[in-house]
Design brief:
Layout lengths: L1 E6 L5 E6 L7 H10 L7 E6 L10 H6 L3 E7 L1 H6 L9 E5 L14 H9 L3 H12 L2 H9 L6 H18 L11 E5 L7 H7 L5 E4 L13 H5 L4
Parallel strand pairs: 2-3, 2-4, 4-5, 5-6, 6-7
Antiparallel strand pairs: 1-3
Helix pairs in contact: 5-6
């Protein structure tokens, strides 16, 4: 797993953002820029690229210095966050993802996942992005902050994620559990019905018109955090 500081100002609180598959820091940069004018004052550390589930050196020592840690996880990052060693977590939110990422009832249909992995290309990445966003407005925003990663790089990560899912299973040895789950009613990657099934018994917020890419609906980090306040 790779990590990158988006904001590191010695704040009292650390927000750990577990990004989705194939992403990089650009979504984090966008969210911080949108959040600072509203008074966002936490430090922000972004996690991405789950080809390995081992954190980079110094991750634990740097994160452990905070008295308060919040996790926001999106898509495959929801699963990854539960399989990475973390300091004590105070609160956590899962967005459009489950702990059963490749599962016909509680995640992505295995046949769909395998087809995505087998046919990943520049052309299919464009199709996937459109499917992930569902609207021209959301797609335009995503394209403006889309990751600077090659299709080969993304495909390698997806292959490694598949191996992780088979080896690690749905739940790691994490001492914390998600406090709240946010489900997009128009999610065409993790269908809403499967998410609801996966999170049965957990606190849920359903946003009927939200697609898999949630950051057109959530304009900043404060709007995400408001779901658990």
């Amino acid at each position: 797993m790779k990590t990158v500081w988006i904001r590191n100002e010695g704040a009292e609180e650390l927000l750990l953002f577990f990004n989705g598959w194939g992403m990089d820091r650009r979504i984090g940069d966008h969210l911080l820029a949108e959040s600072l004018p509203g008074g966002f004052d936490a430090d922000l550390l972004l996690c991405y690229d789950y080809r390995t589930l081992e954190a980079e050196p110094r991750f634990m020592s740097e994160a452990s210095r905070y008295g308060r840690i919040t996790v926001i996880a999106w898509s495959f990052g929801v699963w990854a966050a539960q399989h990475v060693e973390l300091p004590p977590i105070e609160r956590s939110i899962a967005i459009n993802g489950t702990l059963y990422p490749v599962n016909a009832e509680r995640g992505i249909n295995p046949r769909v996942f395998q087809a995505t992995l087998d046919t990943w290309s520049e052309k299919n990445r464009t199709r996937f992005n459109r499917r992930m966003c569902c609207s021209d407005e959301a797609l335009a925003l995503f394209c403006s902050i889309s990751p600077d990663r090659s299709t080969e790089d993304q495909q390698q990560e997806l292959e490694q994620l598949q191996e992780h899912f088979l080896a690690e299973g749905p739940a790691g040895g994490a001492a914390w559990r998600y406090d709240h789950t946010i489900i997009g009613g128009r999610d065409l990657v993790f269908p809403a019905g499967q998410q609801c099934c996966a999170w049965k018994g957990h606190r849920q917020t359903m946003i009927t018109d939200m697609p898999h890419f949630p950051f057109f609906h959530f304009r900043n980090l404060q709007e995400v955090l408001a779901c658990i306040r």
